[in-house]
Here is the input.
Amino acid sequence: MIERSVVATRTIGLFVDLNRPHARETAREAARQAHEYGFSVALPEVQRAQLELDVPIGALDEAAMLISIGGDGTLLRTARLAAAHDIPILGVNTGRLGFLTELEGADELLAELPRILLEGYVCESRIALEARVNGGEPRFALNEVVVRKGASSRLVPFGLWLSGEKVVDIPADGVIVSSPTGSTAYSLSAGGPIIAPGVDAFEIVPLLPHTLFSRPLVVNANERVRISVDSSLVHANLETDGEFARDLSPADVVEVERYHHPMRFVRTKALRYFGLIEEKLHWGHSIKEEGRR
Here is the structure.
């Protein structure tokens, strides 16, 4: 869904890959420009001292948007913070791939930022996920939730339920539950389909299943996905967006469902989704043709 918004407060947030000098400098330039237009800048507390911005510092609770400066991994970490404050994300790529980001580097950001601040912006909404272990605290994921076995060569039978109905037991190394945004990430590597961002669905992909007939599933995004670890011998792990979340014991149950509000991404131009896949992931490119160039 696309909607038009205005910058409702005089504060913008930044989340920066502090390990990249170019990202740090881009953040400083963006902060100076925002200050020139009368905006203060909000940062996570752990980043304030390291960036040393010479501009007024605001609170993230007051930010109209959160600008992610780094690569795709930075944007995934930004998404957790944006979800907690229910604010949109503007992604700026200073990394390698930049599949999820909207703008490339400081030049594009500094060219677009004044217009965004003064005239408003267009937002695209996307589904996100949340996972709970045994009904506990939710863990946010923009791309995917993964339940996988620990460091053992043994196969584990993972039980799968959809909205309370037992579907199958899968002997495998793990199970991925992915949003459409995450369908071009880990689940794609595991053989899952590409799902366009506007499709209201999840995909469920087994990791290295020990069966000749296992296939990925695409299910309605209103489903509640339940995964059990049906082994008393092998422990498993829960991961969200590529990061370890916690250990799982044999009796644990992971429930995955739609996050309670959509994630909003600031767009400065029409999203050419399949053109982006071709450009960034080389979809449809011939290996032979690439070698002749």
